[in-house]
Fold these 2 entries.
Entry 1:
Amino acid sequence: MRLLLAGDDRAAVSALRSAVGAAGAIAAACTAEPADVVAVVAADPPDAVVAIGGNAGTLRTALDPLGLDMGPEVLAVEEIIDGGGAFGTTAARRLRALVERRALRARQTELEAIVAAQAVSRRRHDEEGALDTLRRLALAAEYRDDNTHEHTQRVGELAARLARHLGHEDRTVWLVRQVAPLHDVGKIAIPDTVLLKPGKLTREEFEVVKTHAVLGARVLADGKSEVLGVAERIARSHHERWDGSGYPDGLAGEAIPLEARLVHVADVFDVLVHERPYKEAWSVEDAAGELRAGAGTQFDPAAIAAFDELGAGSWTTG
Ligand SMILES: [Fe+2]
Ligand SMILES: [Fe+2]
């Protein structure tokens, strides 16, 4: 066992040092000055610091300023010397027990950190697997649609930028970016005659197209990862409207999942500014005007405000 004796009374320090040595421990010594103790501990960490002169509390704070229960145990000399004032075998045993308890606590903290790190790594692993599957699914969906890979990626990019601008956590922004491209995955199940039809759809055909939201959500349902959960919410609710007149559930306002509200704005904008079999490409200004006009009815007003603040001009790429 290695002790650091911190005290300004040289005679007391020296006497304790011999007693400690006789009891089989190794003792170094320094002044009771906190800066001195911190420097000696940093250079050669002992198992425990023994404060001689009633400043154990000050030294404890100096050595562990954040109260993280780290560094060596700090004991007042009164805690370890015998009733008779000597450092005998009882004192040595008591000191050893204290040091061991400290070491055990440190080991426990270390083990907890390892368990937490393993949980994070397992989650990352699961998530990677889910994302890999989702990307393949998105690719399959893109083969079925009239658009290219670029539309879904642009929607992911814009929705994530809106989320970031609205101050959402990095994790939310990342999730939106990853899974927004899957918003139309349900179109896999929509017949070509309807999906690829040039010109206007009949009422019945439009009803068929509308089923892509529920079908997509069904494909993504009951996933175990958070990624799949967000993907499912987006697939199901990206055609809901702020005023409750959207589909498939007629949700309104904040009852519509946030991620889906953002994807709705991004999706509509991107479709407007690009050519489709049934329409010409709109100018960015016209599309932005359409979005503004729909704030509070079709779109989440906060999302439209974020869109405006970001500047419609920044969405012209692609
Ligand atoms: Fe859709
Ligand atoms: Fe889309």
Entry 2:
Amino acid sequence: MVEVFALCGGYLELDRASMLADLEAGQPWTVPVGCYLVVHPRGRLLFDTGVHCSTMTDPVGRMGAERAKRIGVKSRPGDDVVSQLATMGLDHQDITHVANSHLHFDHCGANESFPRAEFLVQKAELTAARRPGGTPGYNPSAIDYEHPLNYHQLDGEHDVFGDGSAVLFPTYGHTPGHQSLRVSQGKGSLLVFAADACYTRENMDRDVLPRILWDAPTMSTSLAELRALRDRKGATMVYGHDPEQWRAMVHAPAPLRA
Ligand SMILES: [Zn+2]
């Protein structure tokens, strides 16, 4: 039996037009940062680690001045994965695997808190984040992901527990090595964690990309593949930063219901 839990990884305020490129700029919007814990008989997988808790008290120090100008931190104490795991009686030693959808600051902020886990990241993502001279979109200080961690670099799909219940798969475009996660809990149920391959349901329904992206045609292809999973295979799609969906979702310590 595989269980999934939704953990709050923070709240950010940004311009709605940065997430839906055809909207007029200047609409502040507070969005959730979701992290998801998959509990399997062979281990526990954390998909994304959210915003680092110090971002609440020192946004410039942690995010850098440029990003802190554009993005407000709206998290309250307890809105971070380490605190959220504690509500379930878990700490870092209980997490066997961490997968980062990608290495933007709001998806890998607490990586350093899991020194014993095996990290599962696409090779193309680590390469982009570590490119000498930097790649736009990644925190130039690399403070979120450059720690002595056990990074296992993936090249395409990866079946985390070897039984098809939790599979990471490439959804490139938002970044060069973005990946999403699909979880099967049996009886045909399929939960898909899109992360930033699709910020909100509106992006998918209206086929609108965000302004924040690496390559638009590649991202469009990934978005279409995710939509086909949702519409043709009956998957429940969990969007990366959808306030409406997050409000309606059951959060940890209770398990997520598909
Ligand atoms: Zn994000």
